[in-house]
From TrEMBL, chains A, B:
Protein known as: Molybdopterin biosynthesis protein MoeA
Pathway membership, UniProt: Cofactor biosynthesis; molybdopterin biosynthesis
One Gene Ontology term, aspect cellular component: cytoplasm
GO MF: molybdopterin molybdotransferase activity
NCBIfam families assigned to the protein according to its UniProt record, in alphabetical order: Glp_gephyrin, molyb_syn, PRK14498.1
BP GO terms, sorted: Mo-molybdopterin cofactor biosynthetic process
Organism placement in taxonomy: Archaea, Methanobacteriati, Methanobacteriota, Stenosarchaea group, Methanomicrobia
Keyword list, A-Z: Molybdenum cofactor biosynthesis
Domain of life the protein comes from: Archaea
Keyword Lipoprotein: no
Residue span(s) of domain MoaB/Mog: 186-323
């Protein structure tokens, strides 16, 4: 067989050892103090001044010799001669002798001879005199020179991350420019299929996400990213970019072009102009990883897939950057969670992207081509090769994708604009997986979602006009331990262009239909309405649908349906009203379906679900619902399935 | 009495209410994606494309019609006609019919007619053909258009903080510029005593720390600070700066010039050109706080003291900024701790700066003039007016000064360069309070330090030459439950200029001495050496020391001693050898003192103390110790006090 791979994958331990031995040297750079927040100090800071640099009043009042006040009291004040006023910041010179005082403010220097400050509250000024009503002790309301920070003291150690507090200390000792560590990391994305965000996406291309996720990830580690853009799968172009990066950076990250596909030449290039230390780590998705050195500058080739690249970055590269910046303690952000569902492993070591919602961990892998596994993931877990299954309930450690905001609720099911409104009004953060209604039921069954938004109709005598929503499916699937919370009604109908001659289901034969995907409530509802229409007319369902070109199509979203109709690719579609209005289309209502929420019973009393339901039944939600969606008397009603 | 204050302080609740009602509006601003990391999204992001935008191969191999492969096996491959190669990023068009295949790479579009990809591992190419050895199902190794992110989906909601992951999602839908919230906050420092860091510190002045701590604090909240520098206590200058800031910012923070001292005119100015909403909050240190509005722009006057300003900022201003930036959840960083020592409150509501070390909380207040309370503090606790004492062991909630790195060990006692070396080699983070030896013993007694570095000599027959270090003091103070770990020896002696005629203690009479402060080991040792010298000579100690001008002086540090000698202010000083060498001075050794570590027994087995002791007894420490310090056979020896 052609293109068979013979290269030897190295172990995770070996990969770490190689990376640990790479020489990645940040260079010191001087930054203006205000720009140094969050950076790592490049050298020890020893103060050259005392803080304060002079004995200082810490209250408004009068600098005196404490001895002069010992005998005074509220009823028997002592009168001192007032020599003058010494405001804060003044360099006027006074010498206070017995029986004398100088007016001072907070921050004033203590004049020579004085050794205490009487607070203004315990004094009254006369003509060239001040009367003191309360004695002070030596040193009272004053502060000695150097009592904050002593000259010669090491105030900050090299390697300290500069927070608000450190910035304040540096300012107070007069440092305007501070030496910080600058670790410049070059980023190169490779692949003919990549287009830069902001440019037009032509056929067969995808946007370059890696340049930007790596940029953010490098910043999060405290290093300085430098973008070299997208390089085509062309040896000359790649070589040129690599050489520039080698001259400018302490480390280079590339992504893409490292697997064994036809266009992958990066690793051959590293071999040619540098040295390859490893090609492939035996952990999924580490197979395409390349580690090399070009003219002393380490280069790491990451997978092209954004989630894979980010996992390998967090697992292997980020710790190296942090170490190079002198962070002794591992800053890898991890959090413990409980596996929310059973996961079957492939029997090899792997990093699995996961979501972490209220302490529960859910696999977020949708195949290695997916970028959503990124939007749907908060981090990843490491699975050893010996693990076949991770059972639900198993404690696992999640390495987070940096500083992530974690969702409050994981919602699966059919798309609805009402969900966005519920999210906005509740203030909760939903992670939404649009799986159609059938996928929503499955997600509740497999415990991979908290709530499913569902609108699945069934022919059932218990329902109005013989159609009952969602309850039959829950019953048929045996989804015990759940509740169905009645949501709101949605106008469903046919979607046509303005001026279309289609006026109802009877007109469908001969018209090019764009249908919804199997498993969606809209498609199921259309089928029921067709059955209703043909009932007693002596035509079979097969006959009727065979007469509709495109009946077998399966658009994955309302938006896709509207587009197909608006663009003329189809004459008629099926969907909810809301979507048509934005697109200037005409809507022919044929039903009001019920969009409900299926919830696992054990989370009904959590703060998040209570907030969700409270919002659903609020008057604000009712009044802000978009056209074609209506709350009704059953909104919020709970049907329990034991 | 003059300058009596009549203004009415408002309650904390009232202050919060006023601040909550202030209108602080961030403006949306477009940022390039790579610069948007960490910013807050200003609007919902709805994707205008599907991701991927075309059906896509997720493996290298051959795009086929799955039906063609159903019957094949390893021993009976099926041979398909190879139409050509369709690399990732290519827009070449192929149409795959029954019996045909197209070579594809990961990321290639699936050509028309094909519905699956056979992995290259299960194929072999012939002459214009490819043999398939393993069947695939419909959709296998492919990914549908929109299966990651669906066109029309709201991918990110306004108000989301943009992390690595969010940046990746934005890139993958092609967003190059993103709308983020920009909340511009002006910073004005006022006071004639302020000098900008980097400039020369003249008599009576201090460096402006507030501009920089507030700058960092504002950045930490996600807002954009703008520095207006230092404004003198001059009404015209202040008015001009305020007016500029009002025209440029959504909020203005000033510090200083708000208390009732002579030079404080800021609050009168706000009254004049705007409206004062409050002057003074009844919580220490909130008395100088001013809240006002000028032409619709809120202005908050903070105390001039850096720690006070930062506490008021964190307690009142930071939550307002975060709220204005749409952070629903309070991001105030708090951590629970246990009070490590008894604290006596003043019977009024207050914010107390504290250190947080290994879960223990220690007051870090050194008086309102201190900036070190900032370097020594990790945050603050709020004490209600009803609290008289907080007992050691009480759980308290600490509001952190943002992202703070917390120390591993709190060390008090006498200054020693050996401590810096111990910190460097151990990798631990020490918070060091230089209190002299006597302060170190007290800190252990009051449980306000973990370790005290001490070098206190006593006349004691148990010691070598009748001098015993530290043990007698521990015994006299009754410091039970502690251990004394023997440290290292330090050469102590007289410090003189090169060419000085002083050659020992006998030469001190008539020479101007710069002595150390009472409580320091060096001063105590000099006294013992003087006693030794005069013994049997028929002169009293009083007589001898009275003959030494400057004997009563008390420099707070070695550095100050060396400076006094080097500058000629004194003829002779007392200290350790190390310090003299840096200053080109001459050193006349009169003893080798013992510098030891007093440690509370209950923390002896913590990771941090073990690491500390391990470093103390390491060969690396021994070899790197600076001149005049020596480890010896007793280094690391533990003396236990029950």
């Amino acid at each position: 067989m052609k293109r068979k791979e013979f290269r030897k994958l190295i172990s995770v331990e070996k990969a770490r050892e190689i990376m640990n031995n790479l020489q990645v040297f940040p260079r010191p750079e001087s930054l203006a103090l205000e720009n140094a927040y969050g950076e790592i100090l490049a050298g020890d800071i020893v103060t050259e001044i005392n803080v304060p640099s002079f004995p200082r009043a810490v209250m408004d009042g009068y600098a005196v010799r404490a001895e002069d006040t010992y005998a005074c009291s509220e009823t028997r004040p002592v009168e001192l001669k007032l020599l003058g006023n010494l405001p804060a910041g003044s360099d006027a010179k006074f010498k206070v002798s017995t029986g004398e005082a100088v007016e001072v403010s907070t921050g004033s220097p203590i004049p020579e001879g004085a050794n205490a400050v009487v607070m203004v509250e315990y004094s009254s000024e006369g003509d060239g005199t001040v009367s003191i009503y309360s004695p002070v002790t030596v040193g009272e309301n004053t502060m000695k020179a150097g009592s904050d920070i002593r000259k010669g003291e090491r105030v900050l150690r090299a390697g300290r991350k500069l927070g608000t507090r450190e910035i304040g200390v540096l300012a107070s000792i007069g440092k305007k420019d501070v030496p910080v560590l600058k670790l410049q990391v070059g980023i190169i994305s490779t692949g003919d299929e990549l287009v830069q965000p902001g440019e037009k996406l032509t056929s067969g291309k995808i946007y370059d996400a890696n340049s930007y996720t790596l940029y953010a990830g490098i910043r999060e580690c405290g290093a300085f990213p430098l973008l070299y853009g997208i390089v085509k799968d062309n040896e000359t172009a790649m070589k040129k970019t690599l050489e520039t990066a080698v001259s400018e950076c302490a480390l280079i990250l590339t992504s893409g072009s490292t697997s064994s596909g036809a266009g992958d030449i990066m690793y051959r290039l590293i071999d040619e102009i540098g040295e390859t230390l490893a090609h492939g780590i035996s952990i999924k998705p580490g197979k395409p990883v390349v580690i090399g050195i070009i003219q002393g500058v380490p280069i790491i080739g990451l997978p092209g897939n954004p989630t894979s690249a980010l996992m390998i970055f967090n697992e292997f590269v980020a710790p190296m950057l942090r170490k190079a910046l002198g962070e002794d303690k591992s800053l890898k952000k991890t959090e413990n969670g409980i596996m929310g569902t059973r996961f079957r492993s492939e029997g090899r070591q792997q990093l699995l992207p996961v979501g972490l919602i209220r302490g529960m961990v859910y696999p977020a892998d949708r195949g290695s081509g997916a970028i959503t596994s990124l939007s749907g993931a908060d981090g990843f877990i490491k699975i050893p090769s010996s693990t076949e299954f991770i059972e639900a309930g198993t404690p696992v450690e999640v390495t987070l994708f940096g500083e992530v905001e974690k969702p409050d609720l994981l919602i699966a099911g059919g798309f609805c604009p009402g969900l966005d409104l519920l999210e906005d009004l509740s203030g909760l953060y939903f992670r939404t997986l649009f799986t159609s209604s059938s996928g929503g039921f499955s997600a509740i069954a497999s415990n991979t979602a908290d709530i499913a938004g569902v609108n699945m109709p069934s022919s059932d005598p218990r329902g109005q006009d013989g159609i009952l929503y969602n309850v039959p499916t829950v019953e048929n699937m045996g989804l015990s331990g759940t509740v169905l919370v009645k949501g709101y009604r949605r106008e469903v109908g046919l979607i046509v262009r303005q001026g279309s001659l289609v006026s109802g289901i009877s007109d469908l034969p001969g018209k090019h239909l764009i249908n919804r995907n199997r498993g969606s409530g809209a498609r199921a509802l259309l089928d029921l309405k067709i059955a209703e229409f043909i009932a007693g007319k002596g035509i079979s369902k097969k006959e009727f649908i065979d007469s509709i070109p495109g009946y077998a199509s399966g658009a994955k979203s309302e938006v896709a349906v509207c587009e197909a109709v608006a663009s003329g690719k189809a004459e008629v579609g099926v969907g909810i009203r809301n979507c048509t209005e934005k697109n200037g289309l005409h809507f022919i209502k044929f039903a009001e379906e019920e969009y409900d929420f299926l919830i696992r019973k054990e989370i009904l009393e959590t703060f998040e679900v209570r907030k969700f339901l409270e919002t659903l039944t609020s008057t604000e939600f009712a009044s802000k619902l978009t056209s074609g969606l209506h709350v009704y008397e059953r909104t919020g009603e709970i049907i329990s399935f034991e």
